[in-house]
Write a structure and sequence with these properties.
The longest helix is centred in the C-terminal third of the chain and has 36 residues. It is built from three helices and no strands. By secondary structure, the protein is mostly helical. Helix 1 packs antiparallel against helix 3.
Length: about 100
């Protein structure tokens, strides 16, 4: 029985795509006016002064997706390394 590297490689590709989407969300937020038309020196309240991604919660979601994608990539990379180790061991045993 031969163990193939296809599943870990596909997992790494999916993780890379997920990380790319998360990075795009984090890198290009749409800024909103800090105070709108209010000229007062008071600091903004509520969602004022936040980017659209921050105000909608997309930024937090994108950060969580980036962490998850990074961990998935690492797990698949370890699986690929284990596959390589198993195949080298099988070859050395003459299988």
């Amino acid at each position: 029985m031969q163990i193939g590297p296809i599943a870990p490689v596909q997992g790494m590709q999916r993780a890379t795509e997920q990380l790319d989407r998360a990075a795009a969300t984090m890198a290009s937020p749409q800024p909103q006016a800090a105070r709108g038309s209010d000229p007062s020196p008071a600091p903004p309240t509520g969602n004022q002064g936040l980017t659209a991604a921050q105000a909608s919660g997309d930024l937090e979601s994108a950060m969580a997706d980036a962490i998850q994608a990074s961990r998935a990539y690492e797990a698949n990379a370890r699986a690929l390394e284990q596959n390589d180790t198993i195949q080298r061991r099988a070859i050395s045993l003459g299988a």
